[in-house]
């Protein structure tokens, strides 16, 4: 089976052809936002960091911004720097240029201030956009897709209907040779037995288990018992009782597929099949990690109703809670509550999801895209010391 995607110079393929306008430091966020707002197809990658970060944390921020600049859905990138920050704009742009010929940078302290930088940035991005409009999709095998599966604002319906339907999708894409990535380490506690059974090797499982243990130990250091404080108040109000129930429902997103690899935050998935990515449960940070791993599309299940999108990839929203779907219909792409009502089956809804995602891959906008939900944030792992 083939899908029509955009071919990139580094051999990967994208489902969108957008421009990343990247801030190296929080000081230039306004400039980046104004540039992106002026150019259709451009997205603002703003964040609170870029300075006062410890070594590994700063390196992870720069690596994450790099992965956004060369994400398969990006056809071009403009890096905006201030000029005195730790993440150097010229250096970051140089790394992006190794994979994207359409890449430039501006340093605000050299260009001449806010208005001048915005004007020059808009000019550059409009030139990028004109060139990207000339690019056509090419027909390639569906195995070139990497899809993230994620959940947030979960309720009773997520684990027994929405996530199992996503699991059917995961099985179909991995059988076709594609990649599926999942994370949310803190929300895998209690599902270790299932993860062990799904892992292709002991090494893969032990990497996942060590990450779960690290998260729990870190929480205990701060005198927080995650197994006692999870699920969240919203999860509890939605009918979930324990972290084990939440985790066992969450892991249903990978279905019966095998986990072929386990990687760190900021690394890229390279093996066909399911790859675990060590991400936090926070929706934005998790999505960043999954997209840095190469996900071109994110399937996001929510029973409570979560509107968030993401700058680098279309986010496809699924719910099995019909009441929430009825109230927030504009935020959803697929209602699978028929599973609970015994009007449809998990297999039928999984097949429907498969067809929908193929359409998204070829350009159909998701609800989050239509509403302008293109959120972005970095994942900070060190304290602020200065």
Q: What class do helices, strands and sheet pairing give?
A: alpha/beta
What's the structural domain tally? 2
| Helix percentage range | 40-55%
CA radius of gyration: 20 Å
How are helices and strands ordered from N to C?
Answer: EEEHEHEHEHHEEHEHHHHHEEHEEHEHH
Q: Biggest sheet, in brief?
A: 7 strands, parallel
Mean pLDDT: 94
**Number of DSSP helical runs:** 15
Uncertain residue segments: none
Distance between the termini: 54 Å
Largest beta sheet: strand ordering:
10-11-9-8-12-13-14
Strand content: 15-25%
Shape: globular
Question: Count of DSSP E strands?
Answer: 14
Describe this structure in words.
It is globular, with a radius of gyration of 20 Å. By secondary structure, it is of the alpha/beta class. The chain is built from 15 helices and 14 strands. It has helices spanning 29-38, 55-69, 89-97, 108-111, 114-132, 156-175, 192-198, 202-221, 226-229, 233-237, 243-250, 283-292, 322-327, 346-361, 367-370, and strands at residues 2-7, 13-14, 18-23, 42-45, 74-81, 103-107, 138-141, 146-151, 179-182, 259-263, 273-277, 297-301, 315-319, 334-335. It folds into 2 domains: 18-132, 3-Layer(aba) Sandwich (Rossmann fold); 141-370. It has a 7-stranded parallel beta sheet, with helices on both faces. The chain has a 4-stranded parallel beta sheet with strand order 4-3-5-6, with helices on both faces. Helix 1 (29-38) crosses helix 5 and helix 7 (192-198) runs antiparallel to helix 8 (202-221). It starts with a strand and ends in a 16-residue tail after the last helix.
């Amino acid at each position: 089976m083939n899908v029509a995607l955009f071919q990139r110079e580094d051999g990967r393929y994208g489902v969108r052809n957008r421009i990343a306008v990247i801030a190296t430091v929080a000081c230039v966020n306004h400039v980046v936002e104004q540039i992106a707002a002026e150019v259709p197809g451009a997205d603002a990658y703003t964040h609170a960091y870029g300075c006062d970060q410890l070594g590994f944390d700063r390196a992870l921020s720069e690596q994450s911004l790099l992965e956004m600049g060369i994400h398969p859905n990006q056809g071009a990138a403009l890096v905006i720097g201030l000029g005195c920050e730790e993440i150097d704009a010229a250096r970051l742009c140089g790394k992006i240029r190794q994979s994207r010929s359409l890449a430039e940078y501006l340093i605000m302290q050299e260009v001449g201030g806010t208005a001048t930088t915005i004007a020059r940035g808009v000019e550059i991005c409009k030139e990028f956009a004109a060139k990207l409009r000339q690019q056509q999709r090419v027909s390639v095998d569906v195995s070139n897709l990497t899809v993230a599966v994620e959940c947030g604002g979960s309720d009773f319906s997520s684990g027994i209907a929405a996530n199992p339907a996503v699991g059917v999708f995961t099985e179909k894409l991995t059988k076709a040779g594609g990649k599926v990535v999942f994370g949310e380490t803190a929300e895998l506690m209690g599902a270790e037995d299932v993860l062990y059974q799904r892992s292709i090797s002991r090494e893969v499982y032990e990497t996942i288990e060590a990450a779960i243990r690290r998260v729990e130990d870190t929480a205990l250091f701060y005198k927080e018992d995650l197994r006692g404080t999870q699920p969240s108040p919203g999860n509890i109000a939605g009918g979930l009782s324990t972290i084990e129930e939440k985790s066992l429902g969450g892991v249903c997103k990978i279905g019966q597929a095998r986990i072929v690899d386990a990687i760190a935050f900021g690394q890229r998935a390279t093996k066909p099949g399911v790859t675990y990515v060590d991400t936090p449960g926070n929706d934005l940070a998790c999505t960043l990690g999954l997209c840095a791993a190469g996900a071109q599309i994110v399937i996001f299940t929510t029973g409570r109703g979560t509107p968030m999108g993401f700058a680098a990839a279309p986010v496809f929203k699924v719910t099995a809670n019909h009441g929430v779907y009825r109230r927030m219909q504009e935020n959803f792409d697929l209602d699978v509550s028929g599973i609970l009502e015994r009007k449809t089956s998990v297999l039928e809804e999984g097949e429907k999801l498969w067809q929908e995602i193929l359409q998204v891959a070829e350009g159909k906008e998701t609800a989050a895209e239509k509403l302008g939900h293109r959120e972005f944030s970095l994942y900070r792992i060190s304290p602020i010391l200065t």
